[in-house]
Amino acid sequence: MYDWILWFHVISFISWFSALFYLPRLFVYHVENIDNKGFVEVAKIQEYKLFKYIGVPAMWATLISGGYLAYSIGFAGHGWLHAKITFVVLLVIYFFSMNKYRKELEADICTKSGKFFRMYNEIPTLLMLVIVAMVVFKPF
Q: Containing domain of residue 130, as a range?
């Protein structure tokens, strides 16, 4: 059973990261084309659907399957697992911050620039590198 849950966890993780990587890119397009009302309306729909129908289910699938895997191996003596969970918590916070910006963009009250969202888009990459390193190298 463990291997099947691990398989599902990896698939869920990949799906979640598709939203984590692409939603801020949509934000860049949104703010840089703010004068094009037709484009902005399409961007709002894409942002909503990506967050709600891909991001949220994939996040929950990742967290639930990851929780099962963590429980299966046990928490004692696995410092790398504690570190991984810490960075996953940061990733969840980041994910919900994207929803905050999505709602601001939807309401036409967001004041962030395309440059901001380009930099903001690097956060999940950095967190992913650390999270995967914790699992592969198990440094402590």
A: 2-137
Contact 28, 118 (CB under 8 A): yes
Buried b (16+ CB within 10 A) or exposed e, 69-84: bbeeeeeeebebbebb
Please tell me the distance from the alpha carbon of residue 111 to that of residue 118, in angstroms, as a whole number: 14
pTM of the model: 0.94
Domain total of the chain: 1
Express each pLDDT in 83-103 by its tens digit.
999 999 999 999 999 999 999
User: Which of these, 11, 12, 20, lies nearest to 93 by C-alpha position?
Assistant: 20
Compute how many other C-beta atoms are within 10 angstroms of the C-beta atom of residue 4: 9
